């Protein structure tokens, strides 16, 4: 088959770029350690995740190590529990693992402007871990259409200075 | 066969034996194929016009410019209508018409049976009408229909059964249309053993084989799970499994929109530029790559999903990245063909040749501008495909920003441009309102440039897609580039221009439809010049459709076999989520805590 010289150069350059793109993602996963949402959360009860073994009552929990916290969030039409009625509060300089599950339809769990962004699919538990350095307030958005009140489904995540965080009242 | 001489290019083609004022349009040679093409185009343009009018309602509502048309709770019916009418019906009816033309023209024979062709058209139309009825019923309280489940219809949200039944009927219609083209090809093959498949027919066949492989997913989703669920025959479905089946189909459908555009860029655009296609063999390679790589990539829409192991997402990501290859090759061919044509028309210089292109010809300008925007859309698509960067933009306004460049411009603007060239040939009528047609591609281009750049930037700030009111009481978005009010303004102005573009297009088509036949010569003819490097340079193995279909199926099995098995292993209906009908939402809002 006759392939023009310019076409051949272009073909090789395109393949090189593709390999480069795959390489950057591999680098992110292997070297930089960016963990994807995957199957590690396992399955939960579709309408009552808290009834499942590895899902707790929604709230903030102290993690296995100091400075680590686990946040259990239920998404429901049209609120994050916790998040919407009460903000999620975690201290600065902490590592936080979010456990997210839906009780009705598909929802999104997005901390606006960050890469904390996962789907909440009934029957599945999503697990995302993030580090928070500075005190700051973040917006929490449902970014998957969940019904006619979808645009009301939002909340806040407050990263508070460590002295202001009182584990005895904030943590379950 | 005699063809009218192309007066612009002076291409040394077969000389017309007819007097120059005599027409030889497609419709005169193949009246029954021309009728199917006309009917398909009619439905396609109707869907485009209605979908575009819904688009401006959305653009103005969610940017807060004008909210007088709908309540925010009705926004999602508008959004569903916009998505389904444009992404499924405008595009696929156009494809059905264009492929009927392409098969007939390139094989030089009419479709085998006009009644069969009418049957698949009727089935597609009936399905589309049922789906539209279910969606628009949502605006009328007294009508029990409700289908504001959006274009993706994720279970366990549940629409009226009419929505799913209509989708199924429409899908079967597309299958039968493919069967019609395949039948025409097989008859040609038995009359012409050993001959190379004509390029346009080759493109139609590879596209349809890809379509058969990929629509199996959505057919199973609708027929086994969603339709029975909406009829109350089953109590619950596994939302992850149905979502996976949707995206098994949901990415290939993207190529089903795009391949008619590629079909036009490879076969029609070079001629309009004043030259001919660069390489027939590489065009075949591109379509074969789409056939084998389009389906095993769906998991790249599910990077953010729990319940799917990272490894499968990685496989899909790698496949997706290699799917860039046919698009990169197409970019080369499109630009090279334009340059070749421009130089034949007397253009010269490194970039100066561009001035020699026929920018005042709406068919050419539309396709060229569509190709240009597709390049930008391709790059934002690479960001979506990057498994980790995707987390930043997943389900944000970045995503509609991206696909308004791909399906909303690369496909849609190309389809409109092709119509300026093809519609006169299937109606036998000269294109009317030519001046409007000449400005239309530029209106679309400017509108899309404004809207999509603002959508991309808003997405980076975290503004979500698919929402009636992007501002929230609890917090504000922080823009990295520009300001949120400026982005909103650009989206509103851009959306308005795009709707204007669709209305201009519809006006030209309607005026042409109502014009008298036989008034003057058509400006266009169906003749396509031979490529520089013809099919004789292409290895024969490229025409082996059985082999490529087998490769496609094996790749699908590798990408989907194990994850789907693990979702089904615990029972196809487990974990079992009960349906949530979209019509009973008001009660749910009352339960809002806080």
From TrEMBL, chain A:
<dbReference type="InterPro" id="IPR001505">
    <property type="entry name" value="Copper_CuA"/>
</dbReference>
<keyword id="KW-0812">Transmembrane</keyword>
<feature type="transmembrane region" description="Helical">
    <location>
        <begin position="12"/>
        <end position="37"/>
    </location>
</feature>
<keyword id="KW-0186">Copper</keyword>
<dbReference type="GO" id="GO:0016020">
    <property type="term" value="C:membrane"/>
</dbReference>
<keyword id="KW-0472">Membrane</keyword>
<feature type="domain" description="Cytochrome oxidase subunit II copper A binding">
    <location>
        <begin position="64"/>
        <end position="171"/>
    </location>
</feature>
<keyword id="KW-1133">Transmembrane helix</keyword>
<dbReference type="InterPro" id="IPR002429">
    <property type="entry name" value="CcO_II-like_C"/>
</dbReference>
<dbReference type="GO" id="GO:0004129">
    <property type="term" value="F:cytochrome-c oxidase activity"/>
</dbReference>
<dbReference type="Pfam" id="PF00116">
    <property type="entry name" value="COX2"/>
</dbReference>
<protein>
    <submittedName>
        <fullName>Cytochrome C oxidase subunit II</fullName>
    </submittedName>
</protein>
<keyword id="KW-0479">Metal-binding</keyword>
<dbReference type="GO" id="GO:0005507">
    <property type="term" value="F:copper ion binding"/>
</dbReference>
<dbReference type="InterPro" id="IPR008972">
    <property type="entry name" value="Cupredoxin"/>
</dbReference>
<dbReference type="InterPro" id="IPR051403">
    <property type="entry name" value="NosZ/Cyto_c_oxidase_sub2"/>
</dbReference>
UniProtKB/TrEMBL annotation, chain B:
<feature type="transmembrane region" description="Helical">
    <location>
        <begin position="161"/>
        <end position="182"/>
    </location>
</feature>
<feature type="domain" description="Cytochrome oxidase subunit I profile">
    <location>
        <begin position="47"/>
        <end position="542"/>
    </location>
</feature>
<keyword id="KW-0479">Metal-binding</keyword>
<dbReference type="GO" id="GO:0004129">
    <property type="term" value="F:cytochrome-c oxidase activity"/>
</dbReference>
<keyword id="KW-0679">Respiratory chain</keyword>
<dbReference type="GO" id="GO:0020037">
    <property type="term" value="F:heme binding"/>
</dbReference>
<feature type="transmembrane region" description="Helical">
    <location>
        <begin position="246"/>
        <end position="269"/>
    </location>
</feature>
<feature type="transmembrane region" description="Helical">
    <location>
        <begin position="403"/>
        <end position="423"/>
    </location>
</feature>
<feature type="transmembrane region" description="Helical">
    <location>
        <begin position="202"/>
        <end position="226"/>
    </location>
</feature>
<dbReference type="InterPro" id="IPR036927">
    <property type="entry name" value="Cyt_c_oxase-like_su1_sf"/>
</dbReference>
<feature type="transmembrane region" description="Helical">
    <location>
        <begin position="39"/>
        <end position="60"/>
    </location>
</feature>
<keyword id="KW-0349">Heme</keyword>
<keyword id="KW-1133">Transmembrane helix</keyword>
<keyword id="KW-0472">Membrane</keyword>
<keyword id="KW-0813">Transport</keyword>
<feature type="transmembrane region" description="Helical">
    <location>
        <begin position="363"/>
        <end position="383"/>
    </location>
</feature>
<keyword id="KW-0812">Transmembrane</keyword>
<feature type="transmembrane region" description="Helical">
    <location>
        <begin position="120"/>
        <end position="141"/>
    </location>
</feature>
<feature type="transmembrane region" description="Helical">
    <location>
        <begin position="281"/>
        <end position="301"/>
    </location>
</feature>
<dbReference type="Pfam" id="PF00115">
    <property type="entry name" value="COX1"/>
</dbReference>
<feature type="transmembrane region" description="Helical">
    <location>
        <begin position="321"/>
        <end position="342"/>
    </location>
</feature>
<dbReference type="GO" id="GO:0009060">
    <property type="term" value="P:aerobic respiration"/>
</dbReference>
